[in-house]
């Protein structure tokens, strides 16, 4: 095979080979069918639909573009307890759509709860998805169970009728977060500037913390990408969203391989593996980090097979043993022998070595060779965040990064000393967490389980 001569320029002057390696017909044609998931962000669009007396219906959700003061009241259920509640909202407008449905932004008026407490007025997002009556909505089940500072909060949910007969939509009422990491990255790319390394550290740390949490309870997100990372620019807080592809993985049970948006798909998924683990989220995380550093995707495959080509052009051809760990059915296939392209030549000349080291440890062919989320959190790349008095680039205080729960710390008690900087110990002590005498919760109690009735259970909580 002739040597690779063409190159693809990365921002910052570095380059990587771009000529497509010549896969044998046998190898390329027998790889499993690849999904056609879009990597595009949610589309901004104007509100459409019939508007009557200041109130319109867009796919079954009332919008109030003509009269901001008009209030819509619906009967809903609490996101966590399932108790019936009445919520009122106004200023409802479409902010995005996709294959899943539509996302609306609105202002929710104060809510009075049964215990007498009142939830103040807040900005909300309403994610509306078509409900298949034959199945329980997995996203709703998972969102009702998870609770973490870096996971978007489900406030309530309700159902609405669509335009067609028997058409029912599920509406997830979520906390509203104004921006995404995708748009933040595009902002710097358009200015032809690199995203400040401190911001990359801040965003990646919070993403990894959200993954450490959901992985500890057995959930795999399966669609990690910049568009699914919500961001509050003023506070620096990141929240993982869109659990539409998420699943509780059970050892020994097969899973579909045609998930995850293309640029962020782990190689074992491209090879058609069905016994994958939460390590696929770690691969996607490495792709996100590289994208923030480059200002463009690291592996921009034009198709499923081309995605593997893009990976090989950087990491080199996987060895027979590496292929075995991804899908042993492809061990005998012949792939072009391509040498790896060093990450030091992919990224800008002055890229910190600890950043390159972390990405190298996330983007491993062998799934079990990738760092776990807790292991990545204690990587030296994030040491700057652990310095007492660190501030955001805008000069404001850092968000709470070390307010770990007992559940979080129980996943890797051997890493507690590295996870919790000395200046954060007192705050944990006030919440009853003594890192000097820490007794972890048994892992089997942390994980969400699925009983024979199809109900999810999490600790003492059961959702039917």
Automatic annotation (TrEMBL):
Source species, domain of life: Eukaryota
Q: Where is this region: Disordered?
A: 1-40
Sorted alphabetically, the Gene Ontology BP terms of this entry are: cell differentiation; signal transduction
Which PROSITE patterns does UniProt cross-reference here? Answer: PROTEIN_KINASE_ATP, PROTEIN_KINASE_DOM, PROTEIN_KINASE_ST
UniProt: ATP binding residues: 128
Q: Which Pfam families match?
A: Pkinase
**Which residues lie in Basic residues bias regions?**
1-12
Q: Which GO terms describe its cellular component?
A: cytoplasm; nucleus
**Domain Protein kinase: start-end pairs:** 89-382
UniProt keyword annotations, A-Z:
ATP-binding, Kinase, Nucleotide-binding, Serine/threonine-protein kinase, Transferase
Q: Establish whether keyword Hydrolase is in the entry.
A: no
Show the GO MF annotations.
ATP binding; protein serine/threonine kinase activity; protein serine/threonine/tyrosine kinase activity
Keyword Nucleotide-binding listed? The answer is yes
Which family is it part of? Belongs to the protein kinase superfamily. CMGC Ser/Thr protein kinase family. GSK-3 subfamily.
Q: What protein am I looking at?
A: CMGC/GSK protein kinase
